[in-house]
Amino acid sequence: MKARSFSHTGVTVADFDRFVQFYAEHFGCRLVAVGESDPAWVRGFFGVDAEEPRCRIGWLRTPGGGMLEIFEFTPQQPAQEVAWSRVGLTHISFDVKNSYKWHDHLVKKGVEIVSEVEESKHGHTFFFAKDCDGNLIELIDLKYRYPLLRYMGWLGGWIFRRGMYKKYYELAP
68 and 128 share a domain? Predict the structure, then answer.
């Protein structure tokens, strides 16, 4: 069996409205659903130990169809700084055209920039910024690889699975 596609990434946010506005303004994401969870469910499912815990859940659709599922809990726990070398999720990424223009655009908008634009040995460019909650965002211009990955990525996966990456598929369960 295999998954049909990547569905979404979940992010817990400090301020639901501010997060939605940040991603709408800077990346064109649109809120497509929002709801409140029952306090008993928030206590039981999420393990929020409070008398009347709350959780607002929303879905932001990114250009191209990706989704961010966002959670705002009350009461909240403090954020933790992302450590690249710690096991776990580190960042989200947007595919863009012209990393340099995006970098300048976000600087002018006052978005916190973490790194200057870098170019890989394969020619794609990227840089990192932070969102309104300090989450890392990579903006990457895949250049000529974008259409190859978008339209032919399945073929590359099929070929590489049988060739140069075969050892990764032969691991014992």
Answer: no
